[in-house]
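Page 37, continued from 36.
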């Protein structure tokens, strides 16, 4: 972590020792000995595993005391890290055992005994260093000349430079020899923290309190620290003296860090990341994460921070059953965020989806049909498994598992097993993947569904003929039955009504009432309308972005349409996105799905995918037609209420009612809108948007 004299003086106190902190230039570790000793540092780190204590065969070197000192390791002139220098004091332990005097010993034996006593003493000293973020082990070879070998006496010390650490960290250091002749030395030290920075909670807000002197000028930056990509600045200011910064708890993510530096030439910056273990930050990270599919067969996980996540390819069958994992799975290693990855597939299919999980909990899922391949298909997935000696077996993936095609099971795949084999052999199935261990095939089931429904329709026709004969026999009840039949037809039409997702900017309370009146009127047509006004509990639980993704996917899957309702606030947000490619933090409320949805809506328009999916509208008494950005004119943008018939025709699709019935419905919607529109046009006080992020003092 880069450290400056300014911050070290705040952390360690104002003392001359801080200002004279030694600087070490270069990234290499070094070792040096006291005079008379020789030492050598092995290259690279080792795996430290202390062994059992053994008896010393004679005099041996052992560590007797550990001493630490804080220094600065500077990679560049303005880029320094806090580092711990370790000094190991050594002494001689044990002594040579004198042999018992025996008459058979001669002078030759005495000479051989004196030879090791006059030799130098060598030892391998290990240093093990542990902190919250670092674990290292180094080996030092030390040699003591024979003249200094005095049992029980200190022979000097060896100095190691150095172990990098972070401000405020607790570090533990162990030292022992190899072989081990005594219990290892253990030293624990709490490095100085930053007492001038305090993080406290205030309801839904988080306060960063910087307690520094009034005359101190410093810069402060909030940024996302991504290990695999450059730092992304989020906010910065030049401040003076004590200061309090207020953040909304929804802005917290684990990689949100604070960087501080004195306002002076060539100052060194330091950073801390206080939210790494905050549960709220981890929840917000997953809410902000977005799984994006890239044509033709790519995908990417977008998130502000790195995620401990795994991705899996799965098959989503028609009918709402859970998505089933497939072979080949995607890489089980942690997913690299903000990096485009490729599917290991030969062809794409709308039933193929990507799941992202963390700690075996499903967090995100996105399917290919939601992009460009159309809705889910009623296809059967055949899994081919290849064994030794070119043996292969086929099974069909169903909700109950993978069913062998030629089996006696009472499942759909087992009943149609022979037909599916014939389709596979005749080339009617699409091969999705081909590997050494197997293959995946998607076989259409439409023709078998049609055959089944043909029998059903025949039975219905016979039943209708019987009912007609009964009606002829009972003419008095014909009118009653016709009325009941008409009611059934209307009920069926309501059940098959088209889905519409209504997106708007919550400019003020009057405009929200107008939007609510429009949504209620559309539901009477009938249309199945989704609007965030009616989903506040779900928005609060999952966030506006997650709510929008779920509603958009459901609406497009069912052949519905997304309505963009433009207002002065919505136009301002669109211009801001088109100018900066990002929304300003805190300008929208916690339930404003329009601002959250722009990250997905704008790419659809920029890439030409909007026609047929989107319809635009605006209230002509609140917004001029030329105020709508040109980009959105790729789809119909209709004025309300003057173009209500065209608006309703676009919503209900080609199967809608005739012109006369459509005009009646338009008049019905216009009457419903008139009171709310008149209320919105009355002179009111200044309009206010929903409460957003309060920047606090200094962020204005």
């Amino acid at each position: 972590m880069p450290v400056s004299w300014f911050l070290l003086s705040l952390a360690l106190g104002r003392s001359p020792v801080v200002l004279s902190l030694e600087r070490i230039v270069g990234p290499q570790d070094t070792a040096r000995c006291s005079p008379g000793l020789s030492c050598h540092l092995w290259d690279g780190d080792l795996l430290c595993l202390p062994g059992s204590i053994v008896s010393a065969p004679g005099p041996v070197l052992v560590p007797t005391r550990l001493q630490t000192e804080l220094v600065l390791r500077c990679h560049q002139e303005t880029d320094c890290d806090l580092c711990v220098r370790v000094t190991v004091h050594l002494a001689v332990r044990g002594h040579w055992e004198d042999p018992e005097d025996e008459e058979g010993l001669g002078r030759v034996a005495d000479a051989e005994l004196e030879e090791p006593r006059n030799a130098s003493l060598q030892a391998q000293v290990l240093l093990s260093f542990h902190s919250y973020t670092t674990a290292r082990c180094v080996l030092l070879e030390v040699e003591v000349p024979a003249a200094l070998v005095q049992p029980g006496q200190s022979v000097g010390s060896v100095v190691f430079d150095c172990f990098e650490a972070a401000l405020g960290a607790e570090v533990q250091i162990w030292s022992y020899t190899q072989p081990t002749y005594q219990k290892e030395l253990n030293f624990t030290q709490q490095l100085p923290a930053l007492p001038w920075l305090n993080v406290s909670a205030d309801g839904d807000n988080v306060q960063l309190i910087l307690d520094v002197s009034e005359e101190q000028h410093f810069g402060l930056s909030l940024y996302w620290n991504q290990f695999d990509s450059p730092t992304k600045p989020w906010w910065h200011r030049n401040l003076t003296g004590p200061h309090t910064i207020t953040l909304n708890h929804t802005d917290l993510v684990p990689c949100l860090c604070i960087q501080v530096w004195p306002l002076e030439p060539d100052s060194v910056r330091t950073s801390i990341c206080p939210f790494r273990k905050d549960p709220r930050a981890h929840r917000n990270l997953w809410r902000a994460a977005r799984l994006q599919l890239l044509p033709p067969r790519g995908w990417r996980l977008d998130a502000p921070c790195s995620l401990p996540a795994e991705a899996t390819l799965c098959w989503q069958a028609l009918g709402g059953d859970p998505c089933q994992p497939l072979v080949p799975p995607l890489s089980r290693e942690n997913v690299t965020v903000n990096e485009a990855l490729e599917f290991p597939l030969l062809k794409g299919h709308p039933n193929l989806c990507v799941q992202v999980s963390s700690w075996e909990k499903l967090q995100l899922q996105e399917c290919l049909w939601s992009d460009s391949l159309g809705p889910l298909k009623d296809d059967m997935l055949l899994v081919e498994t290849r064994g030794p000696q070119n043996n292969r077996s086929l099974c069909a993936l169903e909700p109950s598992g993978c069913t062998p095609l030629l089996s006696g099971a009472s499942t759909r795949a087992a009943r149609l097993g022979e037909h599916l084999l014939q389709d596979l052999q005749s080339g009617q199935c699409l091969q999705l993947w081909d590997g050494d261990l197997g293959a995946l095939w998607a076989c259409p089931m439409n023709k078998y569904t049609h055959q089944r429904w043909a029998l059903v329709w025949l039975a219905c026709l016979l039943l209708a003929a019987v009912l007609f004969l009964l009606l002829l026999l009972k003419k008095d009840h014909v009118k009653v039955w016709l009325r009941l039949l008409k009611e059934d037809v209307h009920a069926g039409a309501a059940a098959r009504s088209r889905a519409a997702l209504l997106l708007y900017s919550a400019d003020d309370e009057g405009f929200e009432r107008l939007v609510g009146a429009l949504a209620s009127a559309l539901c009477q047509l009938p249309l199945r309308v989704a609007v965030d006004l009616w989903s506040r509990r779900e928005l609060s639980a999952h966030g506006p972005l997650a709510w929008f993704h779920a509603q958009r996917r459901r609406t497009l899957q069912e052949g519905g349409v997304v309505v963009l309702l433009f207002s002065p606030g919505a136009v301002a947000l669109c211009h801001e996105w088109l100018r900066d490619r990002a929304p300003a933090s805190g300008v929208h409320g916690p339930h404003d799905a329009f601002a959250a949805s722009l990250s997905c809506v704008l790419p659809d328009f920029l890439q030409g995918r909007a026609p047929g999916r989107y319809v635009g509208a605006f209230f002509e008494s609140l917004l001029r037609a030329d105020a709508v950005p040109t980009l959105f004119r790729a789809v119909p943008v209709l004025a309300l209420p003057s173009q209500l018939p065209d608006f309703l025709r676009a919503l209900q699709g080609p199967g809608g009612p005739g012109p006369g019935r459509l005009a009646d419905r338009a008049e019905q919607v216009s009457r419903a809108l008139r009171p709310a529109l008149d209320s919105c046009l009355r002179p009111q006080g200044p309009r206010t948007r929903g409460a957003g992020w309060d920047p606090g003092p200094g962020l204005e």
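The chain has 15 helices and 34 strands. Flag for discussion at group meeting. Residues 446-473 form the longest helix (28 residues).
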